[in-house]
Amino acid sequence: MRLNSPQINLITKACMKASRSLIRDFGEIENLQVSTKGPGDFVTSADKRTEKILMDELQRAHPEYGIITEETGVINKTNLKNRWIIDPIDGTMNFLNGIPQFAISIGYEEDGEVKCGVIFNPITNEMFCAEKGNGAYLNNSRIRVSNKKKIIDSLLVTGGPKGASKIKDKIFSEYINISNNVSNVRKFGSAALDMAYVACGRFDGYWQRELNYWDIAAGIIILKEAGGLVNFFEEDIQPSLKKNIIATNSNIHEELRGLINKKDIE
Ligand code: IPD
Ligand code: CA
Ligand code: CA
Predict the structure, then answer these.
(1) Cβ atoms of residues 89 and 47 within 8 Å
(2) Ligand 1 contacts CB of residue 189 (under 6 A)
(3) How confident is the model at residue 12, as a pLDDT?
């Protein structure tokens, strides 16, 4: 791999360390699934355990950096120059059901721009990573987005709505509208991996409402460095850590934007 910033080295090391306990926990889930207790509480503790390992590693190197994490929240609020954005397990529902489609996702942001990121599925041993200006990689191979030109020929991926969503009908109607205009749509349950899969050409595009920043921070730089296009819509009507995203191979971007019930798109 030709990525060599101190931040990417730190993230990769932290991911490898945290993945050891995550793999053990995933093995344990299979036992808990058949027990009467069920895996619910165990999953919460697996999330927290993974996050703690990641944070310890990153904080040891840079105690002053800001951190945004799913489980702990915001740390060192005033440092907006250097921030880690962490989702310890993206795809919790899959993890809980023994489905190996989940990942650790960590992005590193400088002055509001994601500069590098890693998305690591420890079960399939696929590590997607990228650094601004130096390309995107899957393990040791350079990756690029697909070359699909028309949305009607495209395979897309999406996610949601969440159980508590107040705009389920809108999300479902968008889903129907888009499905009617593309080759097919998948729903795999990990936003981070969805983006990584667009970056390596497995999918041609991805859209989703009501995401959190930690779901997609690493994916943003990985997709961009793989030649894709990412932007957000209806940003003005929600808090800054909430995101509605369109992420594509760039060729089909405008067509996908056109199919979304958008208010406005940056
Ligand atoms: C979720 C996954 C899922 C997406 C949800 C996210 P979590 O993250 O990325 O694909 O549809 O909106 O909340 O809860 O598994 O970390
Ligand atoms: Ca997530
Ligand atoms: Ca999570």
Answers:
(1) yes
(2) yes
(3) 97
Please identify every stretch of the chain with a pLDDT value under 70, giving residue numbers as ranges. 1, 32-43, 262-266
The answer, yes or no, to whether any atom of ligand 1 lies below 6 A from the CB of 160, is yes
pLDDT of residue 38: 63
Q: Which atom of ligand 1 is nearest to the CA of 210?
A: 12
Domain containing 117 equals 6-142
Buried b (16+ CB within 10 A) or exposed e, 139-167: eeeebebbebeebeebbbbbbbbeeeeee
Residues 90 and 155 in one domain: no
pLDDT at res. 124 = 97
| Ligand closest in space to the Cα of 217 | 2
- Regarding the beta carbon of 91 and ligand 1, being less than 6 Å apart is answered yes
| 1, part of any domain | no
- Token pair 């995107």: residue: 136
pTM score of the predicted model: 0.95
Q: Which of 106, 165, 215, 220 to mutate to test the pocket of ligand 1 (most atoms within 8 A of CB)?
A: 215
